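Reopening this ticket.

The earlier resolution said the output was attached, but the attachment link was broken on my side. Pasting everything inline this time so it's all in one place.
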Amino acid sequence: MTSVMIFPYGEVKVPGKWTKTGENTVSMQYFFIGQDSARIAIALQPWDKYEFSHNNPEVTPDNFVRKFYEWDANYLKKETNGQLKVLTENREKNYLVWNLNSERGGNDYYLFGLKGKTAYNLSVKTDKWDEEKKIIFLERLFIE
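Inline output:
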């Protein structure tokens, strides 16, 4: 188990051994590689500090995850000329799993979620896992 603490927002427990490969101080993302060369990114931030949600009364905790997806996924789709697909949406647990497939960027799987006031941006990229395994992996990172 690899424990990723992003102070003061929380901790994400990642099954297996993962090595940190970098971070993006602007997006507050931390990047890791697993023993099987799978790559993940983890970011935890206050939900109301994103460009689309900051001081925007139309964005509420109830619709944040969907608005986050629309904002980020549409940007990435435009930048990569990729195809988007929502794979799972769980309104009760407040998360959404989606996929971006592009010629430039490959096949990325994301989970956007909200716990309390903390937004979760999780992603995994690997050709060695099937889609179901990627979805289950992301859900486990968020839920546990």
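Reporter confirms the inline version is readable. Strands lie at 2-6, 10-14, 18-24, 29-34, 39-46, 83-90, 95-102, 106-115, 118-125. The radius of gyration is 14 Å.
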